[in-house]
Amino acid sequence: MMPRNLPLVLGVAFVALVILLNSVFIVRQDRQAIVLRFGAYTASINEPGSSEPGLYFKIPFFDTVIMYDKRNIGLILEGQSIVPSDQERLIVDAVVRWRITDPRRFYQSALTEDGGEERLKVFTESAMRRVLGAATSDQIISGRRAALMQAIEDDLNRSAATELGVRVVDVRIRQADLPSENTERVYERMRSERQQVAGRIRAEGARDAQIILATARQENERLRGEGEGERARIFAQAYGRDAEFAAFYRSMRAYDTAIDANTPIVVPPDSDFFRYMQRRRGGN
């Protein structure tokens, strides 16, 4: 027969088990927790900067434990419409990596991770409009993207860190494109601008080339003049040292200049043109 007090024992055991299960909780290494008593904050466990995972006790039915992720959390923003300083609207996709650094402030501001993500999304959209709105579309698409992403991250950490108790660890612009209806018009404007720049560079190159050529010609004439002068000086010294050689050299130069190969020439033998040869033949 079943003892009369068995239902009572089972009831007490069940109540004890429920109380026990509601008296303990486990905080994992990658999680952090806050403890609320009647809705008021009482403690934080395993928050950033500490290592306190493990088994913990609470007052059953009076204490509530809320768990938050201790790791970096990803936030993706797609299709953000941004108007840069040159008024060319862009569609920007971005990724934000963030983590909860102050669980108490995070609970007071956002309650849940989903609520915190929604609030951080608003902060990020505002920061992107402030930073990217001061840049040009060319800078966003290519030129200064790294600097702009760092500026957005800094802006978020000034606003979101104080308001939400989080820290933004990275901001990445995954994609920045023109709306499809504006693409051809903007690309045509960019081509025109690049052609203007190319034309200016070509004109500057042509001007510099003329200057360089003029300078080179001037230097060439100077060096040629110096060479001719040095040549004349050397010949003058040679002529002064050996008059016979000088007469011979001048005659050979005259023959070389006047008589081309296979060219007949009629000159009287006693002409001045062959004076040196006559003198050498005659022994004078």
TrEMBL record:
BP terms from Gene Ontology? proteolysis
Question: Which Pfam families would you find in this protein's record?
Answer: Band_7
Q: Which cellular compartments is it found in?
A: Membrane
TM annotation in the entry: 6-27
Question: Could you tell me which residue ranges the Band domain spans?
Answer: 22-190
Q: How does the protein associate with the membrane?
A: Single-pass membrane protein
Q: Name one GO cellular component term.
A: membrane
Q: What does this protein do?
A: HflC and HflK could regulate a protease.
Name of the protein this chain belongs to: Protein HflC
